[in-house]
Every structure is written in C-alpha cells, then in structure tokens.
C-alpha cells in the first residue's frame, strides 16, 4: 500500500511522506506501543522508496520519540499515554501541526493538536525561525562534539606507552 496522492503538489521529500503515514498509523493505533515496526525492506516495498529513504523515515519518528530502535532487533513503537496521543515529552514537528487540518482521518486532537500550531503562530514563531534556531543548536553541539573527540584522542595518546 503506497501513500495516498496529495491533491496539491507537495515538495517535501519522500521520507517525510512515509514518516507521515507511519506516524498516522501509530497515533491511530494501527501499530500499537511495543509492536515492532515494519522492516526496512517492507517499508521500501510499501512506499516504493530506496533503503536510505525508508531509514530516514524511521529516523524522523525516532527523533520525535514515537519509536525506539534496538540494534540487531528492529524498531518498536514507544509507549504513549492513554487515548492514542504521544507522551508529554513528545512534540510533533511544526510542519506536521501546520498541515494536520488538511489530512483526512487524523488522530484525536490533544495537547499536540492544532491548538499548539495556533499558539506557535500567536507567539510569532515561523518555521524559518524554528529551523534557524535548530541549525544554530546543531552547530553548537557539533562544535562540542569535536572538542570532546579531540580530548579523547589526547587522552588516548597520553595513555599509550612510550617506546
């Protein structure tokens, strides 16, 4: 089963379309907490996408806290609160919230529904501002990561026996 074609042209990458449909399956209870997600190969066949595209879709859901992965075993749906809504620490992406009214058959609205999108609009936060803030945060984390790698290399060098 492939994703339903959109009535208007959507320029988002295929992995986001796949992530949308999988997210909908999780939030509507078609894939229950604790259940294993379809394999990469099954996702490739279902959505007609490449291996890396299917992996990217799962990465989106993992980053959102909807699924978790156990190396060598697969990806599983994370536990959510009652009512099919994600747990309190889940925040749906802004583009998902903004387009939720246009999607048929969406899950019941809760704390992460369109009210959250309206609150973000009321706060004057645009998607571009959110993305800019995320980019800046990633740059800071990347710099911290590089510094830690240098420190680890220095410690390894210092611990090596000298000939």
UniProtKB/TrEMBL annotation:
| Superkingdom of origin | Bacteria
Q: Which Pfam families match?
A: GntR
Region entry Disordered: which residue ranges? 1-24, 100-121
Instruction: List residues of the HTH gntR-type domain.
Output: 12-80
Q: Which SMART domains is this protein grouped with?
A: HTH_GNTR
* Basic and acidic residues: compositionally biased ranges: 7-24
The answer on whether this UniProt entry bears the keyword Signal reads: no
| Coiled coil segments of this chain | 131-158
Q: Which UniProt keywords apply?
A: Coiled coil, DNA-binding, Transcription, Transcription regulation
Q: Which InterPro entries match?
A: Bact_HTH_transcr_reg (IPR050679), Tscrpt_reg_HTH_GntR (IPR000524), WH-like_DNA-bd_sf (IPR036388), WH_DNA-bd_sf (IPR036390)
Gene3D superfamilies linked: Winged helix-like DNA-binding domain superfamily/Winged helix DNA-binding domain
* PANTHER family linked to this entry: GNTR-FAMILY TRANSCRIPTIONAL REGULATOR, MANNOSYL-D-GLYCERATE TRANSPORT/METABOLISM SYSTEM REPRESSOR MNGR-RELATED
What name does the UniProt record give this protein?
HTH gntR-type domain-containing protein
């Amino acid at each position: 089963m492939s994703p339903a074609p959109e009535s208007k042209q959507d320029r988002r990458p295929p992995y986001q379309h796949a992530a949308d449909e999988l997210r909908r399956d999780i939030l509507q209870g078609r894939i229950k907490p604790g259940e294993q997600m379809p394999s990469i190969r099954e996702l490739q066949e279902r959505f007609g996408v490449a291996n890396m595209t299917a992996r990217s879709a799962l990465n989106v859901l993992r980053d959102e806290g909807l699924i978790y992965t156990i190396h060598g075993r697969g990806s599983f749906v994370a536990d959510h609160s009652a009512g099919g809504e994600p747990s309190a620490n889940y925040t749906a992406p802004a583009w998902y919230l903004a387009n939720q009214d246009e999607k048929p058959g969406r899950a019941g609205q809760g704390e992460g529904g369109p009210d959250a999108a309206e609150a973000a609009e009321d706060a004057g936060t645009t998607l571009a501002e959110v993305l800019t803030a995320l980019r800046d945060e990633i740059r800071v984390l990347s710099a911290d990561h590089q510094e830690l790698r240098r420190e680890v290399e220095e410690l390894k060098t210092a611990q090596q026996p000298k000939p």
